[in-house]
Task: inverse folding
């Protein structure tokens, strides 16, 4: 515990914890689920109040011409620079992850006419798989499934074996939602291109957690959410990346007036807007967009490289403590052992994980369960401390052993 406290004292990102809303006494020992929903920034609260009293409350509809219309692109550019390795004009904030993924996949397929196959990972996040299956059913295409290692993710060898001359699109997660495996974006993108296919990356567990290099790796398209490590709020809008080289010919299937070249001309015929704005369909959700803007600003200020460095240190602490404290009680680390190959969480696996996760939450350690046997320990560098993480692992040790900690029964708010 003393080592953990010293790490907190030396942590350059520690001051950011005060930039988030945290109840004075919410009964928590540790919040380790920021990889599902991040904490709310205080700046977002202030901006939303300003929205109600100034922009919406005072300027009313005039606010559309005073900055709201440009928010999807302005915030997208800021996100691209801060966390995605994307130069301006390629990222927009729009819709949900599911809707954005549907648009990007349909648009990518249209760029590869005559090809009949989509390649993806069977262990991808369910919504990704469902959307792939739905599009394949809709268009009469074949899905070629990769059966990746559940404790890792898709390798270059596995992707190479799945690609054919008929592959139109590959879609994969950059960080696996269960194991936290970081895919080799450059290598897998190059493989897809060697076969004449496009690749669509899911960045939900990457954005705001690890550096992403969309431009440098040659990625074609990408999608991701903003309510995890970017702390934009529940249901905050997602983002879409369309590489500049594809924008002139890219056509997404949901033609809405916000993605039209001249929306206020109210013309009869649809003409796609220039650049990535053509991904838009309906009216941007301004309240959610503000959450994205403030979350991205915090990420930019902290620096994605510093965020990554602390994230690796936190996950390594969890892995080391799990080896010492949990493995003797039948727990298995179901994430990559190499911290450089591991994203922002560590998955701990045991047959009774569903029940154990509920006991942890009741004891004040908020984690999440992922079937069939995984407990995800999510480490959010801007809001999670080392001592907090140590205490959470100590409680986990006591519960995994089926008893109490050395200082007495496990209870909400217990510290050691």
Result:
């Amino acid at each position: 515990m003393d080592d953990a406290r010293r790490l907190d004292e030396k942590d350059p990102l520690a001051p950011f914890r005060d930039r988030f809303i945290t109840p004075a006494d919410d009964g928590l020992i540790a919040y380790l689920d920021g990889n599902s929903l991040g904490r709310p920034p205080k700046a977002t609260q202030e901006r939303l109040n300003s929205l109600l009293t100034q922009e919406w409350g005072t300027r009313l509809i005039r606010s559309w011409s005073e900055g709201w219309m440009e928010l999807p692109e302005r915030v997208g550019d800021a996100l691209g620079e801060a966390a995605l390795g994307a130069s301006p004009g390629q990222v927009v904030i729009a819709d949900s992850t599911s809707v954005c993924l549907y648009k990007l996949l349909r648009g990518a397929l249209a760029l590869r006419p005559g090809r009949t196959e989509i390649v993806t990972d069977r262990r991808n996040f369910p919504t990704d798989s469902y959307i792939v299956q739905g599009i394949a059913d809709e268009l009469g295409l074949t899905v070629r499934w990769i059966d990746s290692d559940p404790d890792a993710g898709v390798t270059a060898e596995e992707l190479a074996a799945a690609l054919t001359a008929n592959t139109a699109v590959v879609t994969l997660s950059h960080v696996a939602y269960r194991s936290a495996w970081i895919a080799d974006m450059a290598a897998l993108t190059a493989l897809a291109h060697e076969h004449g296919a496009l690749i669509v990356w899911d960045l939900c567990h990457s954005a705001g957690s690890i550096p992403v290099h969309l431009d440098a790796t040659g990625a074609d398209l990408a999608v991701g959410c903003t309510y995890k490590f970017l702390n934009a709020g529940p249901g905050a809008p997602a983002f879409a990346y369309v590489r500049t080289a594809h924008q002139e010919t890219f056509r997404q299937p949901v033609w809405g007036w916000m993605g039209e070249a001249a929306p206020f001309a109210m013309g009869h015929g649809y003409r796609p807007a220039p650049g990535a704005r053509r991904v838009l369909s309906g009216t941007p959700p301004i309240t959610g967009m503000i959450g994205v803007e403030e979350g991205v600003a915090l990420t930019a200020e902290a620096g994605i490289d510093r965020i990554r460095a602390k994230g690796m240190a936190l996950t390594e602490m969890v892995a080391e403590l799990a080896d010492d404290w949990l493995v003797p009680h039948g727990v298995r680390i179901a994430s990559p052992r190499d911290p450089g190959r591991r994203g922002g969480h560590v998955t701990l696996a045991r047959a009774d994980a569903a029940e154990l996760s509920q006991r942890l939450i009741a004891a004040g350690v908020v984690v999440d369960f992922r079937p069939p046997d995984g407990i995800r320990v999510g480490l959010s560098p801007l809001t999670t401390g080392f001592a907090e993480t140590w205490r959470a692992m100590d409680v986990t040790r006591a519960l995994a052993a089926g008893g109490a900690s050395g200082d007495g029964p496990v209870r909400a708010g217990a510290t050691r």
About this structure: The chain is about 40% helix and 10% strand.
